[in-house]
């Protein structure tokens, strides 16, 4: 049975950009499963040096982009788990640029980053697969705004699809 899309009011307005990346009628859990091989394929032909470059001055490197994916997925999955368990505490936001700056991603190999990405994805998939319909409709507050577990389920793959598009359009042409 298809998973219904989140309704207006189930997420902060900025998240619509990500939610809308998930095709209508698609199961966001299946979209998440399908992204990992595509993500790996993008990096399979790149050198370490290529992944340490941004597409313009001041832009993240591809290694930093991988780490950003990992960090963001962990944070959104954590929020989903808390809300699914009935936790009503307001969860803080995070500054993605500060996280990237402190990540040390460029000192790592692409292989180590992708291994962490795979471990994070396996955990996220197991968590999202565990949610009942009732849990998907539970809500909480994060970063000062509403979020349901259902919205977070769509945001995680949508966020990655958004960044895959950026990698293809902005990074790969300059490499």
Automatic annotation (TrEMBL):
Transmembrane segments: none
Domain of life: Bacteria
InterPro entries, alphabetized: DinB-like, DinB/YfiT-like
SUPFAM superfamilies, A to Z: DinB/YfiT-like putative metalloenzymes
Coiled coil: none
Domain DinB-like, first and last residues per copy: 38-167
Record-given protein name: DinB family protein
Species lineage: Bacteria, Pseudomonadati, Bacteroidota, Cytophagia, Cytophagales
């Amino acid at each position: 049975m298809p998973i219904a899309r989140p309704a207006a009011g189930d997420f902060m307005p900025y998240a619509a950009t990500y939610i809308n990346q998930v095709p209508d009628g698609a199961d966001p859990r299946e979209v998440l499963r399908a992204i990992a091989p595509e993500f790996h394929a993008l990096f399979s032909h790149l050198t370490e040096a290529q992944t340490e470059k941004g597409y313009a001055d001041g832009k993240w490197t591809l290694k930093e982009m991988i780490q950003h994916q990992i960090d963001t997925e962990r944070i959104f999955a954590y929020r989903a788990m808390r809300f699914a368990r009935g936790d009503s505490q307001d969860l803080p936001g995070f500054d993605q640029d500060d996280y990237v700056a402190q990540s040390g991603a460029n000192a790592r190999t692409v292989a180590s980053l992708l291994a962490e990405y795979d471990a994070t994805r396996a955990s996220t998939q197991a968590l999202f697969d565990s949610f009942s319909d009732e849990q998907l409709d539970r809500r909480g507050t994060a970063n000062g705004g509403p979020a349901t577990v259902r919205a977070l389920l769509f945001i995680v793959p949508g966020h990655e699809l958004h960044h895959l598009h950026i990698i293809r359009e902005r990074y790969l042409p300059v490499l």
